[in-house]
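call fold target=CFA47 protein
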Amino acid sequence: FYLPGIRLAPKEEMDIPVLFMPDTMKMYEAVVVIHVMRENGENWPYEDSAELNKDLKSSVTVAENGGIQGILWIYPVHGIPEAPPQKLVPAVVRCRARQRVERRVEVLLTGVVPGATAMPAARNSATVNTNKPANIQEEVQVTDGFFTTVGFLYELQYQSNEIKSQLESLVGMHLVQRERDTESGIVTLIFNIVFAPNKPMRNEATLVVRCTTGGVWKFPMLFIATEPEVDDVINIEAVGLNKESIVGFKLTSQTR
């Protein structure tokens, strides 16, 4: 759009509205250009206008008499669509403290292909598959050459830096398989999640998937670490009434 004839006083501020309404899950690019000229039509004097450096030539318009007629500000804008929030059931990864578990998490990405925006009601959330073996060597499937041009980036985001510091070293994740339904265009990503908690906890996280062509999808996750197994049972036998009984045992620290 074009906004002509806006007057600005010295040091006055102006808001520029930018509206973004994507219809497909891809990144859109635009440029906001602001052209400023003096209200009286005069030029700004500039002695060496013929020898303007390359960077300055792209941001000014020079008049025939050598003065600066206008000044340009150019702001690139990237529009990245995000999938609408849905009330998804969190994918739960549960493990006893001081143990290790591997789970498969399956997520569905709609709108990766233009026109594929409907999501089946039966598979509208991130799900944890506990039946498949945790074979992390499984090859990534490629369908119809689609994945030769489309890639995905992913990360786990946490509600706070404190939760991040607790979970970051305890959770491992990588993409093991991706498929695309040729009819619906829905892309299925399967992740292998490794969770090795060192103490009981219950923390939420968000799996964020970004498509290299643009588009962001978010899926809730819940990591639960239950009480660990009992290490040992200590029996103390009494030697008599009102007499102390002592049992010694060793504790070894797992850290420095």
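return ok
The domain at 83-113+150-228 is CATH 2.60.40.2310 (Immunoglobulin-like). The chain is about 5% helix and 35% strand.
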